[in-house]
Amino acid sequence: MSMNFLTYLISGISLGSIYAIIALGYTMVYGIAKMLNFAHGDFIMVGCYVVFTIMGMFNGSAVGKIAGVFVAIIVCTLVGVITEKIAYKPLRGASSPLAVLITAIGVSYLLENAALLIFGSDPKSFTSVVPWEGVAVKGLKIQGVTIVTIVVSVIVLVVLQLFVHKTREGQAMLCVAQDKGAAMLMGINVNKTITITFAIGSALAAIAGALQCSAYPALTPYTGAMPGIKAFVAAVLGGIGSIPGAMIGGIVLGVIEILSRSYISSQLADAIVFGVLIIVLLVKPTGILGKNIQEKV
Amino acid sequence: MALLEIKDLTVSYGMIAALKGISFEVEKGEIVALIGANGAGKTTTLHTISGLLKPKSGQILYKGNDISKVPGHKIVQMGMAHVPEGRRVFPDMTVAQNLSMGAYTRRNKKEIADNLANVYEQFPRLCERQNQLAGTLSGGEQQMLAMGRALMSQPEIILMDEPSMGLSPLLVNEIFSIIEKVHQNGVTVLLVEQNAKKALSIADRAYVLETGNVIMEGKASDLLNDEKIHKAYLGE
Which residues in B lie closer than 8 A to residue A190 (C-beta atoms)? Predict the structure, then answer.
């Protein structure tokens, strides 16, 4: 295997890890609240601006980096929970599922334009939250942020799986995902469970944002839009609603994107990514790990 | 004071009135049956009592307190369990996980374990299949699981919605004998059934629902011999 290929593969896995962390938020919210939160990508952007602002206050010191990520997680969690309470919850049970979908698109534009108003449209240059240079093994140079991104995504996946399968709240989530009414009959507070889900998804968006802007340092109000859409593709690719599926989908997508950008054409990379989605959906509509839904008569 | 008293309950789906002011009561220790044809409002009644639906007007008095505005998830803790129509077990969870979700509101691990042992004793089939996914069980087994899951909350009253639906006659008999056993253990039962004959044969009292109204009530044995009931709901 050539050195170049390995380099591309590793950076693909790293980019895919970012998609995966975003996709986890998409997929959990879909699985539990049965809605597509198209504003999820913009939560990333909110997180990025918070990290950027706090780091600026601390002149880019290490304390500023840690504080920035920490505050971004809190802010994004609040944004997610408040959005859910104000914009989505009143529409739960609306006669058409389109109502909440369109609201989500509205929230997305609201957040983008609010950022435009506050920070302007010129790209901000983001300093990496990972000050580590990285390692070089036999001429193969891997950046610090690349390694940290992959490690963080693995930790996130493991912690989430433990949370869902080993805690009371996690079990409640699984029940709500399968049958809201039956979950309520068990004494599960369905609204609270959905709120917790949004909180987790949004906190993950903040983490993904910090990592993404560290790897790709130009920050604009639209920074979250494309990764948001690609993470949605990743979630569908892996099987929407499935946590391991989001992880696999994200990494597959990241690797395809980087490899096609390197070997085929950087302009065509996104077209290839979305082309893969179409092909996968034609072959297996439920995604890689998605269950085959059986219609009961 | 009745354990459960329904007063002038009205429920609508949008513009359509499903319950038009029904009243009935369930005394502690009774088996009360609600019978009636499709669309009479039997399931709506149970859904409203357990908080899945909110009433338009009327009261639901449980142990003397109006629970019509209590959030559904808090009603379980008050000692009321609901075995819903169509079982609604969690298909992607095992039998054991489903049962443990039944005890979601309880904290005492020892009591829960004792309760679980009781349920397995009562439903040996569930014990054999405890690691099987609930979605792969047969209809009768799912019904048993739904009942076992409800019992895991240690209810004082259990609402059962069409427990016999879609089951073979042999299984229907088994399910009804289980309901009687549950009742003998001190649980009050409010039973909704289309199989009126079966329901009346185990119930103390019954109410007949028709398009959102109670049109008849009485001792189950009397209703079983009533000519009108015979014609309309029991068939010849």
Answer: 73
